[in-house]
Amino acid sequence: MASERKRTALKSRPGVRPGESVRVLISRARVRQRVRQMARQIRRDFPHDTLHLVGVLKGSVLFLADLARELGGEVSFDFLSVSSYGKGTNSTGEVKLIKDLDVGIEGRTVLVVEDILDTGLTLKYLLRLFEERQPKHLRVVVLLDKSERRVADVRADYTGFTIPNEFVVGYGLDYDERYRNLADVCILQFAQHGSGKK
Ligand code: IMP
Q: Does 115 sit in the ligand 1 pocket, CB within 6 Å?
């Protein structure tokens, strides 16, 4: 029984390296419930439209996949990629388009799906880019909002959770490309150097 519990704990915390630790901030159950609520609200707002989900790679992939399955009616997806944090936990503030959308968005009801809204610089850049392409509606859905960190004057139309100013991983979010496969949204912490522990 105890070893079964241990196995489950290990399984739910893949790839944690020495010197790093993760602590659950939002459990997978709460995420699932909130994603369902958000999907219902979005569908109520656009009952008859084909919803064109535009995911920002790669952090939004798991959120987009779950949201898409909760949205009834017609849904299509596309993805784009912008420069991100790279290896660190701080934004450079510079946004570059690395991969554009495959299809045009003119006349479509577009939902930009983001994992997390931090400084807001990425979203500001994307909204400016997409508005020029004349969608029928342009809305923003984010799972997490670190509102304390906002620099750009942008806001999401649908927000899953407002969170404190902590670096989070899991449910698609990474640190140096790791931890995306954690099922919960977790706070990543680093051990202090020189604690004497080996
Ligand atoms: P913004 O342009 O500062 O709003 O940053 C948005 C992007 O930064 C997100 O799409 C994430 O890729 C990344 N990011 C911001 N905060 C975190 C975090 O706590 N964990 C992982 N990635 C983050």
A: yes
Tens digits of residue pLDDT in 109-146? 999 999 999 999 999 999 999 999 999 999 999 999 99
Number of Cβ within 10 Å of residue 167's Cβ equals 17
Q: How far is the CA of 118 from the centre of ligand 1 (A)?
A: 5
Q: Return left, alpha or beta for 139; rule: phi > 0 is left, psi -120 to 50 is alpha, else beta.
A: beta
Q: Please give the full DSSP string across 13-60, using - where no structure is assigned.
A: STTPPTTEEEEEEE-HHHHHHHHHHHHHHHHHHSSSSPEEEEEEETTT
Query: Which atom of ligand 1 is the closest one to the Cα of 114?
Result: 10
Which secondary-structure segment (H or E) carries 158? strand 158-162
118 is catalytic: yes
Helix (H, G, I), strand (E, B) or coil at 150: coil
Mean pLDDT, the chain, whole residue set: 89
Answer whether residue 83 shows pLDDT above 90.
Answer: no
3-state helix, strand, coil in the chain (%, to 5): 25, 30, 45
